[in-house]
Structure formats: C-alpha cells, structure tokens
Specification:
The chain has one domain: YVTN repeat-like/Quinoprotein amine dehydrogenase (Methylamine Dehydrogenase, Chain H, 7 Propeller), CATH 2.130.10. The chain contains no helices and 30 strands. It has a four-stranded antiparallel β-sheet with strand order 3-30-29-28, with no helix packed on it. A four-stranded antiparallel β-sheet has the order 4-5-6-7, with no helix packed on it. A four-stranded antiparallel β-sheet has the order 8-9-10-11, with no helix packed on it. The protein has 315 residues and is mostly beta strands.
Length: 315
C-alpha cells in the first residue's frame, strides 16, 4: 500500500490559518508549498453540546450528543429531536435506511439504548446496567450490539441480552457488526471478536487506546485511536497503517472497500483513497468525534461545540 509523504507536525492539526504552508524539505534550499485550504463545509448546530454520533442518509443527517440532545437536518439547517433519556449524554449513533425506513440506535452514559423509527419516534431500552455504554452498532434492526467497559449486549429485535466477554476487564469503546459477526475495540488496543454467538479475544498488535471502528465487510475492518493509530483487519490478521497525523483519531467510516475516512482531535480529518492516505483540511480546531457518509463522495463529521461538517469529493 503506497503512502503519501508524511507532513511536518505543524501541518497536521488541520486548523484554520493561512491557505498554504512551506516545507523546506531535507536540503533546506527549496520549499514545497502545502495547500491547507479547507475542503469541508461548515454546517454548525447552534449548541454547545459535543456531537458524539452521526448517521447520514440520502434524506438527511442525524446527530446525537451530550446532554441527551439530538438533531435532524443538514446543509439547510437543523431541527431538534426530543429523546427521553433524562439528560444523559448520548455517546454513539448507528443507523440504517432513509425516510420511512430509517432505523436508529443511540447509546447513553448510563445503560440505556434509545431506538428510533419515523412511525414510533424515540423509545428507550434499559439494559439494567448503570455503567456507560460507549458504542452501538449492528447490521439491521434485529441485529444490534452495544458495548462498554467490561460488557457487551445483543439485541434481537425484541430485547437486549447480556453476553459474557472473555475478559471482564476489557474496556470497549465501539463496535462494528456484519450480520451476527462483530468486532469491538477499546482501551490499550483491546479487541474482542464475536462469531457463532460467542465473544473471543483478538490481538490488534497495538497498545494505543482505540476509539472507533468501521468496515465494509467482516474481512475489511478498520479501527482508529490514540496518536494517529490506525489498524486494519484483512480477514486474517490486524495490520498497522502509517498515516499522516499523530493526532488522536476518534472515529472512522468505511463506505466501501479501499475507501476510509477518519476524524479526530484539533479538526483532524484524513482519508484513504487509491491506496494512499491524505489530509482533508477542515479549517476548524474542534475535536471531531464522529463520521459517516451518504456515499464515498459525500461525508459528514461532527464534534464538540456544535460542529458539523460536510465533505464532497468532486473527483
């Protein structure tokens, strides 16, 4: 896999400033101009909340965040959605479908999972667990998973069921599922894999804490985390990727095989395209906690202080 040359650290924060920066190169005799013009459009929500989860469909974008708040909208503005979670922070969002077929699930900080359909609105399911549920994911409304520190739950369309983990001390932050198979990642490179209804330990090969996970299939799974860590499961083993940032990466989205978007601290956004990683300058310094897309060319990200961004790939 080819890589774009690593950029100097001062160019990696993806913050606003001048549109170009100079890299003196190894010799110091010539300068390479780096274009840092922002390529994302800002569609900020008028809120101080952290936007922790996002789902983008062709009909609109759903965002959930701290304080139990949720919004629906996009480039033309945002509408508030009422979720009865007693002000608990919403930590993650999974979604599928659009318009009347939309199905959403949002995890909370104290053992609740809020689920949404246009016909029924938001309802909450109690996992009988007072600990924070960090991540939620699934392959459909009857195959959902929720994970937290030392815990995992599965939903069959009717009820949530606790599922034992091989190590109750593993601190899980996010989960990705393909059918009944799932991967969950967390602190200190922790990883568990679900197959045939049973969770087992897996080795990512890193000790950095991993925050987000996504994939295009059970043999193409990506996880991101501290210090710009990116690891890839190819169906046989986890491999560490070299990427052009050392910022913490909070979330990753894989719209299709060979296309990967990741976002993180200080407005960082990177993508894998045609086998090479590149920075997509955002022009903001907000931490970006979530990323999702309508397609590989229409991507949304959200972060702290009400930040929402859209990237359109014109190529």
């Amino acid at each position: 896999m080819k890589l774009l040359p690593l950029l100097p650290l001062f160019a990696l924060a993806c913050t606003s400033g001048s549109d170009t920066q100079e890299d003196p190169g190894d010799s110091g005799d010539s300068a390479v101009v780096i274009d840092t013009t922002p390529v994302w459009e800002q569609h900020r929500i008028e809120s101080s909340s952290s936007m922790n989860g996002i789902y983008a469909s062709g009909a609109g974008v759903y965002i959930v965040g701290s304080g139990g708040f949720a919004w629906y909208g996009g480039a033309d503005g945002w509408d508030f959605m009422d979720i009865s979670v007693n002000g608990q922070d919403l930590t993650d969002l999974w979604g599928q479908g659009q318009n009347e077929s939309t199905v959403l699930a949002a995890s909370t900080q104290s053992g609740l999972v809020a689920q949404y359909t246009p016909a029924g609105g938001w309802t909450t399911g109690d996992l009988a667990d007072t600990n924070e549920i960090k991540g939620v994911g699934g392959s459909g409304p009857t195959q959902l998973f929720a994970v937290g520190w030392g815990r995992a739950y599965a939903y069959d369309g009717t009820s949530w069921t606790y599922e034992p983990l091989p190590d109750q001390n593993v601190k899980l932050n996010d989960v990705y599922a393909e059918g009944s198979e799932a991967f969950a990642i967390g602190e200190e490179g922790g990883c568990v894999h679900r197959a045939s209804g049973t969770w087992s330990a897996c080795d990512t090969g890193v000790t950095a804490s991993l925050e987000g996970i996504s994939g295009s299939s059970a043999s193409d799974v990506w996880a991101v985390g501290d210090g710009g860590t990116v690891v890839h499961w190819n169906g046989t083993k986890w491999q560490v990727e070299e990427v052009p940032t050392t910022q913490k990466l909070w979330a990753v989205y894989v719209p299709e095989k060979g296309s990967v978007y990741a976002v993180g601290s200080a407005g960082t956004a990177i993508r894998l395209k045609d086998g090479a990683w590149e920075i997509l300058y955002t022009g903001v310094d907000n931490n970006l906690y979530a990323v999702h897309g309508i397609s590989s060319k229409n991507i949304w990200a959200s972060g702290n202080r009400g930040m929402a961004l859209q990237y359109r790939d014109s190529e």
